[in-house]
Design goal:
By secondary structure, the chain is of the alpha/beta class. 37% of the residues lie in helices and 16% in strands. The structure holds pyridoxal-5'-phosphate.
């Protein structure tokens, strides 16, 4: 297998200019400078072709520049680009109807459109406080919910998201997320680790530090994303739902990364047979146009006129892109995410047998994490080998992204084919061997 000559001279020149004027806060990894893309393929400014298993952090759900999405954007741009949330327009209403239709609630749904994941989370925090007239929340260690002050208070995947940004929002208590690979709570033999976490909330939080009748909401990623692509055990969500029902607490599912068909269902929480009260969405919802949504049971969205809003919410171009995106996901890509995602997971599990540095492969659909360890017995994280694999994959033509302490996420566009998976995994297999052999 031959390495690409990357970064090429054009990429280097762009990065030099970028360094002078773009905020240094962005966590850029390797020096990929995009020129254009089509589906799961992307090209850099020096003409090098890559397969994209990162999809712009799980955003390009329909692939890069899907023709239906491009057409919807072009047609809407010809008509009008903006009118503000003070007025009405058809695409906004149509998209809200569509999101309500695909929401997982028994009762009717109501929708508030935003511009990003973090804005969806801020909206959920405010709505939960408004609706319950309570001010406290529970969040999970390892969770990622965004970077604005409210959302970053919940974010608990890395300390640098918070360093020198204190004081944050009041009233958030973090508890362990049920990571079955690395449980941090002791377990009775045969006990479901998800139920163990709920027991911890009852005994260590509700009986010691936080009256449950003062908790507005529990904010949780049904599958942790940035924290390491962690799938909770089956017993977790039913027990969490029961706990919320008992105390009148809203269950808020952050579906920004895991939702919109990525796990073969519209919402990843549906894999656990549980209905939330509020969903936060963004990323894959509009194939890359900046759009997010707060989707709730109709009875929960009880805030009155003027209590919450935004200027760009319901932007017509983003709504048009989202409608085309949802249509494509509904007509094949969600099914492909499950079928080809399951195929990918199985292939990666075979690969694990050949590679002692892979501790675990886990996930649902096209949301797969590969955990790198120093050895499979101790399960000690190996961030160095993970970083080497990510860099080498780029050099051999595959875009991937890390998450957690030592995990690579496989989150390609939902249109990715079995042939593209085979091509990408061949590169991954090869570069893991290179990294393992130093
Ligand atoms: C689960 C989750 N929630 C919220 C966010 C924040 O979204 P954004 O970066 O669009 O603000 C992210 C982003 O990665 C996410 O993965």
């Amino acid at each position: 297998m031959k390495a690409l000559k990357v970064p090429g001279p054009n990429a280097k020149a762009f990065i030099e200019r970028d360094l002078k004027v773009v905020s240094p806060s962005y966590p850029r990894g390797y020096p990929f400078v995009m020129d254009h893309g089509k589906g799961t393929e992307v090209w850099d400014v020096d003409g090098n072709r890559f397969l994209d298993f990162a999809a712009g952090i799980a955003v390009a759900s329909t692939g890069h520049s899907h023709p239906d999405v491009v057409k919807a954007i072009q047609e809407q741009a010809e008509k009008f680009i903006h009118i503000s949330s003070d007025f009405y327009h058809e695409k906004w209403i149509e998209l809200s109807e569509k999101l309500a239709e695909i929401s997982p609630f028994q009762e009717d749904a109501c929708v508030f459109l935003t511009n990003s994941g973090t804005e969806s989370v801020e909206g959920a925090i405010k709505l939960a406080r408004y609706h319950t007239n309570r001010s406290n929340f529970i969040g999970f260690l390892g969770g990622f919910h965004g970077r604005t002050i409210g959302a970053v208070t919940f974010t608990a995947s890395k300390p640098n998201y918070k360093r020198r940004f204190f004081p944050l929002m009041n009233g958030v208590t973090h508890v362990p997320f049920p990571d079955p690979y690395r449980p941090i709570l002791n377990l009775e033999p045969g006990q479901d680790y998800g139920q163990r976490v709920i027991e911890y909330i009852k005994e260590q939080v509700f009986e010691k530090i936080l009256p449950p009748d003062e908790v507005a909401g529990i904010l949780v990623e049904p599958i942790q994303g940035e924290g390491g692509y962690i799938v909770p055990p089956a017993g977790f969500f039913p027990a969490l739902r029961e706990l919320c029902d008992k105390h009148g607490i809203l269950l808020i599912a952050d579906e920004v990364q895991a939702g919109m068909g990525r796990t073969g269902k519209w919402w990843s929480i549906e894999n656990f047979g549980v209905e939330p009260d509020i969903i936060t969405s963004a990323k894959g919802i509009a194939s890359g146009m900046p759009l997010g949504a707060l989707i709730t049971k109709k009875s929960v969205m009880s805030w009155p006129k003027g209590s919450h809003g935004n200027t760009y919410g319901g932007n017509p171009i983003a709504c048009a892109a989202s409608l085309a995106t949802i249509n494509a996901i509904q007509n094949g890509y969600m099914e492909n995410a499950l079928i080809t995602g399951t195929y990918t997971l199985e292939k990666l599990k075979e690969m694990q047998i050949r590679h002692p540095s892979i501790g675990e492969v886990r996930g649902i659909g096209f949301m797969i994490g590969i955990e790198f360890v120093k050895d499979q017995q101790s399960k000690k994280s190996d961030a160095d080998i993970r970083d080497r694999v990510v860099d080498l994959a780029y050099e051999y033509g595959l875009l991937t992204l890390g998450c957690g302490k030592s995990v690579i996420r496989v989150s390609p566009p939902l249109c990715t084919t079995k042939e593209q998976v085979d091509e990408g995994l061949e590169i991954l297999d090869y570069v893991i061997s290179l990294a393992e052999n130093g």
